[in-house]
Design a protein that fits this description.
- The protein is an alpha/beta fold.
- It has a single domain, classed as Purple Acid Phosphatase, chain A, domain 2 (4-Layer Sandwich), CATH 3.60.21.
- It is built from six helices and ten strands, in the order E-H-E-H-E-H-H-H-E-E-H-E-E-E-E-E.
- The protein has a five-stranded mixed sheet with strand order 3-2-1-9-10, with helices on one face. Strands 4-5-6-8-7 form a five-stranded mixed sheet, with no helix packed on it.
- The chain is globular.
Length: 221
């Protein structure tokens, strides 16, 4: 029987070349689970290409995308819950540009919007759980206020180990040195790709890590 893997990828932020390099390197198999930790879009140059890549990947393995605050802003803008400008100034302008010069929200294909709407709040295995940003240690995962938690940076709130005993694998709070942050009960793999550092993929069960830069260059250790 083929060995199954669960691999998480941190905040992509429109860095399509880095994502392509990571996907080529980890060589996904149908039995693998790939968890996208959210903020796949905005800030970087090719958010449209990132969404298209993820749609293709979902046909190759089990894809589990988690909603980030940037995807939440996009959906809120589409649904009229926030002014469009609130999304545009936080990286949404780059996303719209990736759909064409002077593109408007209507330029986003329904297939892309429906795909993002399907993303979940968290994912868990026997030993780990995966979320975009943060969590409340004393509250069961199924009852977390995820809409609030996907916005909370570790700069303002550092959680204790979760009551489940599982290790949290998260993104959102970028390490501008390009290194993962491992505190034992919590591992953050947002390594600031859109800012010139790295996109990180991690297989938590083994600790194997892959990194690629914005231009698709692989990082060797």
């Amino acid at each position: 029987m083929a060995q199954t893997r669960t691999i998480a990828i941190g905040d992509i932020h429109g860095c399509g070349m880095a994502l392509e390099a990571i996907l080529d390197t980890i060589d996904l198999m149908p039995e693998d689970t790939l968890v996208i930790l959210g903020d796949a879009i905005d800030r970087g140059p090719v958010s449209r290409a990132v969404i298209e890549q993820l749609l293709v990947v979902g046909e190759r393995c089990r894809l589990v995308p988690i909603l980030g605050n940037h995807e939440q802003m996009l959906l809120d803008a589409i649904d009229g819950r926030v002014p469009l400008q609130d999304w545009l100034v936080h990286g949404g302008a780059e996303t719209l540009d990736s759909y064409g010069k002077d593109a408007v929200l209507a330029a986003l294909p329904d297939t892309h919007v429906d795909f993002v709407r399907s993303w979940g709040d968290y994912y868990e295995t026997d030993d780990h759980f995966f979320a975009h940003a943060n969590y409340l240690a004393e509250i069961p995962l199924a009852n977390q206020p995820w809409e609030a938690m996907r916005w909370r940076s570790f700069s303002f709130f550092w959680p204790a180990p979760h009551r489940s005993g599982k290790i949290a694998i998260v993104g959102h709070t970028a390490n501008k040195q390009g290194e993962i942050v491992d505190h034992g009960h919590l591992i953050c793999i947002d390594t600031y790709c859109h800012g010139g550092r790295w996109l990180t993929a991690l297989e938590p069960a083994t600790g194997q890590m892959w990194q690629a830069g914005p231009a698709g260059q692989l990082r060797t250790r």
